[in-house]
């Protein structure tokens, strides 16, 4: 893997060129990206993490190609694919017309015949125009063909709410896609998640729905040298315990992990030690980690941005009821987005998405039961 | 009496025979050289040619009003009508400029897609419509709303997320709705409005034929506005088929501004002459200079008349240009890097 990269770099060029312009904002001009284990803490934002993962996987395997709207000349609608067209050419970085159903189907067909497409949706809201292919052509084919056909395709793009983009641009699709056998659904939070999970997704022989978050693209996270290595990969189906705790388990994914961590800080000042689980993988769900945590803390709060009914939290709750019921000391608390299409007005939008305070209050309810539960609607 | 009364509407076989090199003039307009309707850049294989937007020479043609003896190139407008058109276009322009100002001052947020440059299309069509006719649009819908009669104050309030907005701040820039004015949205997904518009046209025909609610003026008409990028989307073709099959009172208006965010129409489309897609489904396909409100209005009059009389749909391709980026968040680097220039005479 490193050998391939060095060939690309050529003599004299610093390894920083691999990441190209993507890391210019992170590194001061002229500095070299440390390839050896350096003691200096490195930071990388999610956009750079995704860009570098795509770059490395495309470099390692010529069957990997990227297609979607504005991924090429525009450098990506959110600049995730910046520099890739220059590097790999228009045969491997394809600007498509605005035809989600068409180009998704084309991607699936290419995957049937052994290529490894990465299909970008400008947002996952637009994937609804292509959902027939994601579910019926991609997810179900391996089963329907009794294993003869495998579909090593990745569908990626921003998911969930942004800021002031209205009802049709703000939905979270984690629960929708996680419902379907045959799909894997990943939800990275940090730069490490983004790199490791995208690489795993591209290498995976099955269709993977990779749900990013637009508001996280610019957020920076510390990354170790191990994460920066081109062979770095995270296992699919394993959650990460971002913060250990004793009193209550809080599960979250994507942007909500950040909110949960903030809530944990606030709770710790009040003597409640919260264990934060970054799910990373919605399908398959890491039931073992979640249940082990609940058996330790005896209380659970699930947090998600999407609509509450039939959501991810509902599945987690059921998993815990099935496997760890006797360990629960309080009913499971579910924090989700409001059950309403996302309003446009900024004050309404704030009320429609979970905030840190909502998570704090839920954790307290799970711990003290001091605030009476509202009557079920 | 229409200047086109003597003209037979030319249907697909005639149009299909047209070779690639000829000027794509409207098939149902008399096949004269329409002065001013020139030089589509689409004929150039690459984007090397400058795009020219030429102003109308209606008045310079100096044909006497009401003359039917020679096929005049434009139906004349009265002074009052011209003032209505002018005011509507200026309002649209000033409105959008104010949106830009508010956005860059941080008072407006989210996605804002402005219509600067395309006013002639909105005004040319919508000012011919009745209150009972409907308009369906895309996310670039502020000016369609204002032209259709939604008070500018209500549209602006909506953009600020206020309860006095036309959708009480719940819809936002991309989702303008007004049942009073029959503005049926405002859709974020491209192509999404086309089936909705086709359904509105269907209901107009249904009301007339099944529910026997007759309107002496004829069928209520629906106008669907969408862009060049949408014309590669499957829903567009599905609706062209059904609208013609059922002879629905709809006009499909393509606002071809040659760019879909940063994707040039020529890079995305196998055959860039969109008007040709109408005859492929059995309806007239018309090409018009979308920078000229009088030409647009002329084509609109014919198309709306057809629809009202129950003769079915029309596809109108208006070549136009947007002066700003796709949205206010679009750095718009790809267009400026190209060799496009706009000259106004």
From TrEMBL, chain A:
InterPro entries: PDHB_mito-type, THDP-binding, Transketo_C/PFOR_II, Transketolase-like_Pyr-bd, Transketolase_C. Its cofactor is thiamine diphosphate. It comes from the Eukaryota. It is found in: Mitochondrion matrix. Pfam families: Transket_pyr, Transketolase_C. It is an enzyme of class 1 (oxidoreductase). GO terms for biological process: pyruvate decarboxylation to acetyl-CoA. This is Pyruvate dehydrogenase E1 component subunit beta. It comes from Canna indica.
TrEMBL record, chain B:
Residues 88-333 form the Dehydrogenase E1 component domain. It comes from the Eukaryota. Tetramer of 2 alpha and 2 beta subunits. Its EC number is 1.2.4.1. It comes from Canna indica. It holds the Pfam family E1_dh. Its cofactor is thiamine diphosphate. This is Pyruvate dehydrogenase E1 component subunit alpha. The pyruvate dehydrogenase complex catalyzes the overall conversion of pyruvate to acetyl-CoA and CO(2). It contains multiple copies of three enzymatic components: pyruvate dehydrogenase (E1), dihydrolipoamide acetyltransferase (E2) and lipoamide dehydrogenase (E3). GO terms for molecular function: pyruvate dehydrogenase (acetyl-transferring) activity. One of its GO terms (biological process) is pyruvate decarboxylation to acetyl-CoA. Keywords: Oxidoreductase, Pyruvate, Thiamine pyrophosphate. It catalyses: N(6)-[(R)-lipoyl]-L-lysyl-[protein] + pyruvate + H(+) = N(6)-[(R)-S(8)-acetyldihydrolipoyl]-L-lysyl-[protein] + CO2.
């Amino acid at each position: 893997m490193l050998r391939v990269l060095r060939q690309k770099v050529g003599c004299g060029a610093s390894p920083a060129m691999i990441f190209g312009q993507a890391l210019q904002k992170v590194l001061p001009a002229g500095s070299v990206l440390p390839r050896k284990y350096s003691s200096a803490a490195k930071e990388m934002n999610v956009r750079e993490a995704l860009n570098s993962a795509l770059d490395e996987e495309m470099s390692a395997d010529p069957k990997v190609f990227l297609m979607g709207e504005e991924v090429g000349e525009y450098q990506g609608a959110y600049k995730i694919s910046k520099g890739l067209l220059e590097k790999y050419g228009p045969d491997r970085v394809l600007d498509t017309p605005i035809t989600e159903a068409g180009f998704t189907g084309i991607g699936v067909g290419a995957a049937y015949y052994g290529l490894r497409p990465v299909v970008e949706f400008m947002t996952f809201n637009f994937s609804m125009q292509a959902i027939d292919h994601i579910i019926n052509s991609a997810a179900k084919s391996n089963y329907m063909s009794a294993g003869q056909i495998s579909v090593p395709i990745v569908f990626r793009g921003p998911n969930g709410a942004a800021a002031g983009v209205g009802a049709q641009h703000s939905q979270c699709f984690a629960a929708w896609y996680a419902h379907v056998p045959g799909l894997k659904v990943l939800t990275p939070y940090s730069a490490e998640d983004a790199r490791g999970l995208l690489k795993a997704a591209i290498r995976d022989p099955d269709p993977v729905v990779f749900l990013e978050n637009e508001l996280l693209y610019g957020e920076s996270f510390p990354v170790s040298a191990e994460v920066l290595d081109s062979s770095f990969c995270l296992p699919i189906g394993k959650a990460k315990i971002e913060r250990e705790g004793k009193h209550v388990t809080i599960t979250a994914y994507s942007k909500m992990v950040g909110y949960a961590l903030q809530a944990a800080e606030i709770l710790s000042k009040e003597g409640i030690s919260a264990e934060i689980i970054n799910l990373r993988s919605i399908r398959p769900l890491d039931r073992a980690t979640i249940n082990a945590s609940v058996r330790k803390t005896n209380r659970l709060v699930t947090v998600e941005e999407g609509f509450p009914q039939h959501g991810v939290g509902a599945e987690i709750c059921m998993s815990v009821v099935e496997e760890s019921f006797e360990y629960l000391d309080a009913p499971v608390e579910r924090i989700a987005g409001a059950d309403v299409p996302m309003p446009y007005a900024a004050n309404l939008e704030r009320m429609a998405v979970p905030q840190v305070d909502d998570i704090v209050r839920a954790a307290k309810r799970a711990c003290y039961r001091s605030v009476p539960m509202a009557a079920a609607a | 009496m229409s200047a086109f009364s003597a003209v037979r509407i030319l249907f697909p076989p005639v149009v299909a025979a047209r070779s690639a090199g000829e000027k794509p003039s409207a098939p149902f307009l008399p096949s004269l050289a329409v002065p001013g309707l020139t030089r589509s850049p689409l004929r150039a294989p690459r984007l090397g040619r400058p795009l020219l937007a030429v102003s109308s020479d209606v008045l310079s043609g100096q044909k006497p009003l009401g003359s039917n003896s020679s096929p005049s190139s434009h139906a004349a407008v009265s002074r009052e009508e011209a003032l209505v058109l002018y005011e509507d276009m200026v309002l649209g322009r000033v409105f959008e400029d104010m949106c830009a100002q508010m956005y860059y001052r941080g008072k407006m947020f989210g996605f804002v897609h402005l219509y600067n440059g395309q006013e002639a299309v909105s005004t040319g069509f919508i000012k011919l419509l009745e209150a009972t006719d409907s308009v369906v649009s895309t996310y670039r819908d502020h000016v369609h709303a204002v032209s259709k009669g939604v008070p500018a104050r209500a549209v602006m309030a909506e953009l600020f997320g206020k309860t006095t907005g036309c959708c009480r701040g719940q819809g936002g820039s991309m989702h303008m709705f007004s049942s009073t004015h029959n503005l049926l949205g405002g859709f974020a997904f491209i192509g999404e409005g086309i089936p909705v518009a086709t359904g509105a046209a269907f209901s107009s025909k249904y009301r007339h034929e099944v529910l026997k609610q007759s309107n002496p003026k004829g069928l209520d008409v629906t106008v669907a506005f969408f862009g060049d990028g949408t014309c590669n989307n499957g829903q567009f073709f599905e609706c062209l088929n059904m609208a013609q099959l059922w002879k629905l009172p709809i006009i499909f208006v393509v606002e071809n501004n040659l760019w879909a965010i940063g994707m040039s129409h020529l890079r995305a489309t196998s055959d860039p002459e969109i008007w040709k897609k109408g005859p492929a489904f059995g309806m007239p396909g018309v090409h018009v200079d979308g920078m000229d409100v009088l030409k647009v209005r002329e084509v609109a009059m014919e198309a709306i008349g057809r629809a009202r009389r129950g003769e079915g749909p029309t596809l109108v391709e208006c070549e136009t240009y947007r002066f700003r980026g796709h949205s206010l968040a679009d750095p718009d680097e790809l267009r400026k890097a190209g060799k496009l220039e706009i000259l106004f005479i």
